[in-house]
Structure prediction request, 121 residues.
Amino acid sequence: MPDRNVLEEFIATVVAGQHDAAIERYYTEDATMQENLAPPRGGRKALVARERAVMAAFKSIATECVRPVFVDGDHVVIRWIFAFESADGSKRQMDELAYQRWSGDRIAEERFYYDPKQMQA
Prediction:
């Protein structure tokens, strides 16, 4: 079960736009992420590299955590709203649920649930 202060630090890091730093600091070395029904991808280094590529693809990404955050033992559910702005000025928004399994104070597994149509320009 994550310490509540650690969970809040994680959320603050993501909201501050430091998505890659959040993975480096708060995920286990062998963590996995999964997008909807896609196969999971794993390994913290690979997850950080992919996150940096996503971040580089946009001029800006604004992040909001929609409360409440649900915690039940080692499982956490966070609702995020991301506002993406492309280099050409086009904007899109994504509303997502992140279902996480924590191992102590680090995320071991995370699965994202969202409608992929949200990311269409």
Summary: The radius of gyration is 14 Å. The longest strand covers residues 60-72. The chain has three helices and six strands. The mean pLDDT is 97.
